[in-house]
Amino acid sequence: MSNPPIPTTAKPKNTIQSIADRIKTNQITRIIVLTGAGISTSAGIPDFRTPKTGLYDRLAPLKLPSPESIFHISYFSHSPEPFYAIAQARHPTTLKPTLSHAFLALLAKKNLLHFLFTQNIDGLEEDAGVPAEKILWTHGNWKDQHCSKCKSAYPDNMMRKAIRAGDVPYCLAPKCDGAIKPDVVFFGESLPEEFDEKVKLIPEADLMIVMGTSLRVAPCSGIQRMMGPGVPRVLINMERCGDMGSQDGDVCILGDCDEGVSEFAEALGWGDELKALWEEVVAVKEAKAKIDGNGGEDEDGPDLDACIAKMAAQMDERLGISKGHKKMLESHLSDKFARMMAGSRPAS
Ligand code: OAD
């Protein structure tokens, strides 16, 4: 006689459909989202760490002390040129929100977005319609700029002009020669003051969604672990990251973010609404870019690799001049030395 089945208390594993069902039945109403560069790659901004296509590999021609140096405050304070050389190709004026940004806006529209922590500085979440009060730009954004030395404000129109030209803008204050820095958080700088306040919202949430980030940069990399016990987490990313997928309630949709949010939206019955919202926000951004004079032929912005190659050539040229100068001095000195040794008067 066979033994009777042992009753199991194990909870069934979450799936994207079971999470969607809990949203549809109002069991999930407060969603915290953490995003990174992967949600903007389909808008044309490369992420940082994906081998070959990511910005950090592509910076190799600049021979920086490390790829991250370009965003390090101490490197910027003496060499702001590389940052401005690539700023033009990463500046958001011509960029349009992706389907992933529209998904965030839809969550907000349905009053489900408790809060969004974004590591991105492109501002595309707001362009897509996420209310600014629901967003913390943990690494700052391009909205304002100040002198890196005296902290004086700098006019928007002059900043835009400098970025478009790939030039370093310098402070207008008398006797200050500081380079202007957009209000983005560089390595070596503090996060916005609101960070500590806003992380207090995380334990109130009943779902965490992590999208398009490698979770390699603290303190944002810790956000995924600040949830209350048993709260489900959804990862929508090309690859696994952090400890996402290690907890019972976790669901991972691995692959392209825009496809991942489409799958999620279909499970929620929002597929058509998402697409319609996305088309609308893209059209609005295109129209705005035309009014601001950023549409037209160059609307995709300059090519990143071309900007890097141009900067690398300028740096090589400068290095060439200083090498040439050093060589000239060395030969001049050895000539002087030879004359002295020969007892003749050194040439001036
Ligand atoms: P990373 O480049 O480190 O990670 C991007 C993640 O998104 C990777 O896991 C990619 O696999 C994934 N990804 C890329 N494209 C994707 C796509 N289309 N669909 C789905 N996933 C995709 O970028 P972040 O994690 O945002 O900080 O980087 C964090 C911080 O490091 C940045 O804010 C920046 C950087 O240095 C500063 O500069 C201060």
UniProtKB/TrEMBL annotation:
Ligand binding (Zn(2+)): C147, C150, C176
GO annotation, cellular component aspect: nucleus
Keyword Metal-binding: yes
Cofactor(s) this protein cannot do without: Zn(2+)
Annotated InterPro entries: DHS-like_NAD/FAD-binding_dom, NAD-dep_sirtuin_deacylases, Sirtuin, Sirtuin_cat_small_dom_sf, Sirtuin_class_I, Ssirtuin_cat_dom
Primary enzyme class: transferase
Bound cofactor: record note: Binds 1 zinc ion per subunit.
Family indicated by similarity: Belongs to the sirtuin family. Class I subfamily.
Protein name (record): NAD-dependent protein deacetylase
Organism name: Penicillium cosmopolitanum
